[in-house]
User: What shape does this take?
Amino acid sequence: MHEYSEVSDEIICALGAAAGEDAVLIAEPMSAHTTFKIGGPADVVVEPSTIEGVVGALNVCAIAGVPVTVVGNGSDLLVSDHGIRGVVVLLGKNCGNVRVEGTRVVAQAGALLRDVALAAADAGLSGLEPLWGIPASVGGACHQNAGAYDGTTGELIESLTAYIPGRDLPDGSREKGAVRTFTRDELGFGYRKSRVASEGLVVLEATFALIPDTEASIRGRMDDYQRRREEKQPLEMPSAGSTFKRPEGYFAGKLIMDAGLRGARVGGAQVSEKHCGFVVNTGGASAADVSALIEHIQDEVRAQFGVELEPEVHRVGDW
Assistant: This one.
């Protein structure tokens, strides 16, 4: 445990009671939990094996006033080299159940989009094919309204169940959070945004409404999307996916290429030679390297084209 940890032994015991003693890890390196393979240690990591355990761990943190960061597959995160203070709640394969109910697929927040799409294909249900190569969990995909090839997560969501963080009360105490189910119309999905993100909701489970089709047709489309990704994207190197949001009227990758930044490096971080919209970890890159390279890219594109590039990658932790 770090000297500056905000998590007391009492809180750690409470987290163990809520999620299981084996689910609590101390000073866990976040590089093991991000697709960038970057990130210093979190004070405490909790990996509950049930949705009830997730809610219990979140309530422990809410009542104690301990900072909490929820991480799914870590595919759009840049975690500080100094790590994350407080508690990280991991929602991965531990909460990754997927089930088919008629023309709907119901998935827990930790399930990967890939596994949800495969389950849908097995059941002859279409709609998820454009998204199946996105390395996001269901929770992260709903948070970001992840999308690819003109398909988005939000347009397929029928409803989702989420944890609503508790509030500070007038007497100085804190209340527990609440669990509620939202319809798609209530979730404010837009380009890389949602009510999940703006209100700090924690997705627990999502229901996707899909369309029947033949398994052969569905898998054919999935193979085509995968082939296109492999041809254009640096899937063989650690990254956080597309580094920047698409600026209106432009493509970030082309702006970066036209600015002469293909292959530009800061330490172990590099603008991908294969697709300039990706910053990749060539080996041993630090979060500081990536952050400095992102700022350099923004400065050059602004100076040369007058366009502001907004990162799609979220910086989290103790910066």
Observations:
- The helical segments are 9-19, 51-64, 113-122, 138-144, 195-198, 215-232, 252-258, 287-305.
